[in-house]
# Entry
Amino acid sequence: MKKIFFILLILSFVKAQTQEQKKDTLFIKYDEKILKKWKHPTTKNYFYSFKHLKENVEYICFEQKKVCKKITTSSSIKNFKEIFKESKTYNIYNRFRASNLFDFLLNYKTVFLVRKEEFIEVDIEYSIE
# Structure
């Protein structure tokens, strides 16, 4: 009986460890209809924010870390429509849920916005007013 309990305890621990592992990299196609690029006045860093999030309690944007040219990858490049669907960003009332998108993006170690031949590595910024 003790052996069975011990084995079940180990299996549950292993399962919990595998669920917490982050996925490697997410590539998102840059869409000018959805994102706007702006420069922070004091830090001079570039940010990419969603155009339709003007009067919302939640705020999410991407901070540019670095720009790379021509990265070879076997991963597919997803568009925002796919990302919104996977992350359940819009609720049943068609309201944008930035927290759902933020949680989804945190599952990845690295996030890139892909624009033509540029791969823009970004950090995710999230705030609640």
User: Anything to note?
Assistant: Residues 22-128 form one domain. The two ends are 53 Å apart (CA to CA). Residues 1-11, 13-19 have pLDDT under 50 and may be disordered.
